[in-house]
Amino acid sequence: QYKYYACSRRARQGETACKGQAIRMEKLDALVLDAIERRVLEPEHLQQLLADFLDHSDASNEKRRQDLTLLRAEKTNTEGAINRLYELIEQGLASPADKSFAERMTRQRQRLEVLTADIVMLERQLAREQRRITPQTIEDFGELLKTQLRSGDPALRQSYVRLLVDEVNVSDSQVRIRGSKKALEHAVLGAANG
């Protein structure tokens, strides 16, 4: 006794709804697993598939670091401006009751609050990026998934395949497998943070 995959549209709407063929489950599973291993999970292929994501992460991190340096310098300048305003009061050259003085102090304090919030946000983003996808993460993920796809519980194996594969189309001459690069990125990142 064999189990077969068949087009669900064809099963619901009849033979004219789909040109897809029924194929033995065991045969199609083997074809899909082989294709995933060869075309997705090999370290070189996986690195290539996620190259844009890795480059984007590196570029984003560098921009954040530069922005953080500038914000910290601006915060230091703003703190200096506030201290100078206080020195004017201490020296008797300005009065806190003076409307112009009060406006300048308010502006500087507001600026300091905004800069402090921006710095905290960038620091958090950079801390999160410590756990981002790296070439080693990708290689480890590929090896782990290969092992899971070839051993263990069939239901778990099917879950891993569904994670990477959106659609499998079978015609007379070929099997076409389609998946999402975004899903792959999320899966790798999940493995890195898990």
Give a verbal description of the structure:
The chain has 194 residues and is mainly alpha-helical. It is built from eight helices and four strands; from the N terminus they run βαβααααααββα. The strands form two sheets. The protein has a two-stranded antiparallel sheet with strand order 1-2. A two-stranded antiparallel sheet has the order 3-4. β3 (167-170) and β4 (175-178) form a beta hairpin. α2 packs antiparallel against α6 (135-150). The longest helix has 40 residues, at 51-90. The radius of gyration is 29 Å and the shape is elongated. The two termini are 40 Å apart.
Key features?
elongated; 194 residues; mainly alpha; two-stranded antiparallel sheet; 8 helices
Strand content: 5-15%
Overall geometry:
elongated
C-alpha termini separation: 40 Å
Low-confidence parts: none
How do you describe this structure in short?
The protein is mainly alpha-helical.
Which secondary structure elements does this structure contain, and how are they paired or packed?
Layout: E1 4-5, H1 8-13, E2 23-24, H2 25-41, H3 43-49, H4 51-90, H5 99-129, H6 135-150, H7 154-164, E3 167-170, E4 175-178, H8 181-193
Helix pairs in contact: 2-3, 2-6, 4-5, 6-7
